[in-house]
Fold this sequence. Notes:
- This protein is α/β, with parallel strands linked by helices.
- It is built from twelve helices and nine strands.
- 47% of the residues lie in helices and 14% in strands.
- The termini are far apart.
Amino acid sequence: MATIAFIGLGNMGGPMAENLLKAKHQVRVFDLMPELVNTLAKNGAIASKSAIEASKDCDVVISMLPAGKHVASLYLGKQGLLTQLTSSTLVIDCSTIDAETARSVHAACTEQNIDMIDAPVSGGVAAASAGSLTFMCGGHTRAFERAKPVLADMGVNIFLAGPDGAGQVAKMCNNMLLAIHMIGTSEALNLGTRNGLDASVLSEIMLASSGKNWSLERYNPYPNVMPTSPASNEYQPGFMVDLMAKDLGLAIDNASANNSATPLGKLALDMYLQKQQQGDGKRDFSSIIELLQ
Ligand code: NAD
């Protein structure tokens, strides 16, 4: 079993660290919010006063932070964690951040002979709790093989997407596509119901036809078609509008830096920003159907 420093114990990091404890790792935890550290400590984790204290002589550092600036400030610079780690430590950043920042942390790790993978996740809070996350990893095969057993204690699907930063690229592509098919599904259901069709009947027809997709099959945005979907529960998240807007922002920034055409991704971002401006940032992302109604 490994000694693991876990930095960032929010909605995702907290349950991920719990699963590492269940797998009998020694887990040292740190978050800027002491109450989150205390909750994990009650369940067997070792509370640390700083990221540096948590990471001292550990085998693996895992971070699960909000955005690229938090990840850069944790690892890089004169006060950064990398100055304190030995080359035997494996760094796994599970945050969803821009690929460029991920690559700059990789480069700093390489300079110090430290193995690193970027490993953003898909699955949300429910999958983090259930230990059924999907990890999309970027980095060297050696680092990936070292990380796999630890990731397997928190998830079920573990992919090596490619070299440094490739996990972040895979994640942003997936979530851009998710936003687009959620909006497309919402448009089709709205058009059909405006024409008098029953949303459940139309969903059943499209599920057996070429319009079938994940949003329709697993996360129907129309209320009361699927009892378990956020749409049938007043759009309680689930996956928040705020997080979808963040992920689409990463994709569109990347697309403009790469001169890559993403007209539908841009439109999806505009729609999610509009939803945020309406005060719906904390509601589920499938509530985008309300913009059409
Ligand atoms: P969160 O805001 O609940 O948690 C982030 C935690 O990081 C907070 O507790 C904060 O105090 C802590 N933190 C920030 N800077 C820190 C620092 N320097 N040192 C220590 N702790 C620090 O966010 P979350 O929902 O857990 O998401 C984490 C990441 O996972 C994000 O990048 C998000 O995009 C991604 N993600 C979230 C979901 C989801 O459904 N919530 C799904 C997939 C991916």
